[in-house]
């Protein structure tokens, strides 16, 4: 087992293989709206794209929230889950802020209980690389091999690339998630306001559509007319409330 990642890497990923890996990772995560969905895609892509890796997991620590976990193989998810104990390769990588590798878990391990569970699940090698997402979330991506000695310096470089690139993509997913939450909160506030809520009610009645769709119609009208949303709502409510001439 080797916990020192400063040894020279004698193998390197080819340029085309590296580009293909990062391109696939970007395509899989770039449009994902939720952080948890992004984690699920990340571990599946890593498992399928990296030769010699039999499963992949992610351990996430979020400020003020329980640790999160994603696993390409649900039957082995406990290897990434800190509820089974914090003495794991992932936590070692996170604490030390460096990549951790154990090529053969049958040898002496600094995580004896974890290593025993891993071997019981058919895992005999691991690489954990720390991932910085943002000021509230840190984590580690974990690559697992069923065969002892299957993880090489080439896999260490792969893990490093995955960690660096995934950190950027996961940060973007977190940002999209926060923006969506703010938009939902804004929608709720607007729907609760008198004149906007009334206008939305009018559109719902006229079109037979739900409130979010009616609010989008109102927003589209405001954008097309280049006037504030509240003014569009006031005009609509005023129009429908006028008595019609006989």
From TrEMBL:
This is GAF domain-containing protein. It comes from the Bacteria. InterPro entries: ANTAR, GAF, GAF-like_dom_sf, GAF_ANTAR, WH-like_DNA-bd_sf. It comes from Micromonospora chersina. Residues 176-237 form the ANTAR domain. Pfam families: ANTAR, GAF_2. The keyword DNA-binding does not apply. SUPFAM superfamilies: GAF domain-like. The keyword Transcription regulation applies. Keywords: Transcription, Transcription regulation. GO terms for molecular function: RNA binding.
């Amino acid at each position: 087992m080797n916990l020192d990642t400063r040894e020279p890497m004698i193998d390197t990923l080819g340029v085309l293989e590296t580009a293909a890996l990062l391109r696939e990772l970007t395509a899989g995560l770039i449009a994902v709206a939720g952080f948890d969905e992004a984690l699920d895609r990340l571990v599946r892509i890593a498992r399928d794209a990296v030769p010699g890796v039999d499963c992949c997991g992610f351990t996430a620590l979020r400020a003020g929230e329980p640790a999160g976990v994603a696993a390409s193989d649900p039957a082995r998810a406990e290897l990434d889950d800190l509820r089974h104990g914090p003495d794991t390769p992932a936590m070692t990588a996170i604490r030390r802020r460096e990549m951790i590798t154990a090529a053969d878990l049958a040898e002496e391990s600094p995580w004896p209980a974890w290593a025993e569970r891993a071997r019981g699940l058919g895992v005999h090698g691991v690489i954990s690389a720390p991932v910085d997402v943002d000021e509230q979330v840190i984590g580690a991506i974990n690559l697992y091999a069923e065969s002892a000695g299957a993880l090489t310096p080439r896999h260490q470089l792969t893990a490093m690339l995955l960690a660096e690139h995934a950190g950027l993509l996961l940060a973007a997913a977190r940002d999209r998630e926060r923006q969506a939450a703010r938009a939902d909160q804004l929608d709720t506030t607007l729907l609760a306001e008198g004149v906007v809520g009334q206008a939305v009610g009018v559109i719902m009645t006229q079109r037979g559509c739900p409130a979010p769709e009616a609010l989008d119609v109102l927003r589209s009208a405001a954008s097309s007319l280049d006037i504030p949303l509240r003014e569009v709502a006031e005009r609509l409510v005023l129009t429908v409330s006028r008595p019609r001439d006989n």
